[in-house]
Amino acid sequence: MSDILFPDGDMPTAPLQGDAAPNDYHYKVIARAIQTIDDAGGAPMPLDDLAARLGMSAAHFQRVFSRWAGVSPKRYQQYLTLGHAKALLAARGTLLETADSVGLSGPGRLHDLFLRWEAMSPGDYARGGAGLTIRAGTVDTPFGPGVAMATDRGLCGLAFAAETGLEAAHDDLARRWPRARIVADDGRAAALVTGAFGGRETPLHLIGAPFQIKVWEALLQVPAGGVTSYSDIAETVCTKRASRAVGSAVGRNPIGYLIPCHRVLRRDGGLGGYHWGLPVKRAMLAWDSARADAAGRTGADATSAAQP
């Protein structure tokens, strides 16, 4: 594949997939960059200055960012600014389908076809996971270390531990199903998570109360690179007056990123909360935007090249 030159001179590199490079290291660099940009008031920083503040050479810094985000650090900075969420809501806000088409509809598939999900029955959930075996393990993700849990039907939990720590993340997920039998199995968990981030078809097993599952199913409609608001989710599943209940259900989402609760913002464009830490949410939104941008540019170039 030939290189694609962008108008500002930026050149994309392939996203990190199936690479031996440590995701945890890359995420720590991203988290430090967010803090550094915030400390500078969010003003754009030249590549050399930002790299120097992170204690890295400009060349190494560019490689790390480009491999993680798929775009150059210069372009990526705009996704890290505090105003990015507000701009996203204005430009890419997603109007979800009405309540008639969202709910406990049985097995479903995402618009991008690589995830499929099945909801646990309300009766099974009420029993607190009794009789259920959940396999748990630590995983490496683009957003640092994580904990994944899976039943025989699919991935039921994915927590990000960069802010909370691995033990707290594991206990947080385990408390949701107090009567389930949880056994260690890094292989099963890692395979599902690696497959999901690699774009392979991955089953999800939604374990929650009926209202929570309705909210999570609504979240599954929000496309990569898009966002929605708590009030839009509330209107989708019941009524706008239920925004607080929806916020609680969003916060209880056990499958981070893949059920994209990080794409839910306040109506004014504020980030709102995030169960696994706001720095992680900002990194996820930036990662989404960078990949949507890179994919759009690549697609536009291919369309232009095909025209006579």
Molecular structure report:
The protein is α/β, with parallel strands linked by helices and 308 residues long. It has a domain at 99-265: Orthogonal Bundle (Arc Repressor Mutant, subunit A), CATH 1.10.10. It has twelve helices and nine strands. The strands form three sheets. It has a four-stranded mixed β-sheet. A three-stranded mixed β-sheet has the order 1-2-7. Strand 4 and strand 5 form a beta hairpin. The relative contact order is 0.15.
Features:
9 strands; disordered C terminus; 12 helices; about 45% helix; alpha/beta; Arc Repressor Mutant, subunit A; 4-stranded mixed β-sheet; about 300 residues; 3-stranded mixed β-sheet
Please specify the SSE layout and strand pairing.
Elements: H1 23-39, H2 47-53, H3 58-69, H4 73-80, H5 84-92, E1 108-109, E2 115-119, H6 122-126, E3 133-141, E4 144-151, E5 154-160, H7 166-174, E6 181-184, H8 186-197, E7 202-206, H9 210-219, E8 228-229, H10 230-237, H11 243-251, E9 264-265, H12 278-306
Parallel strand pairs: 2-7, 3-6, 8-9
Antiparallel strand pairs: 1-2, 3-4, 4-5
Helix pairs in contact: 1-12, 2-3, 4-12, 9-10, 10-11
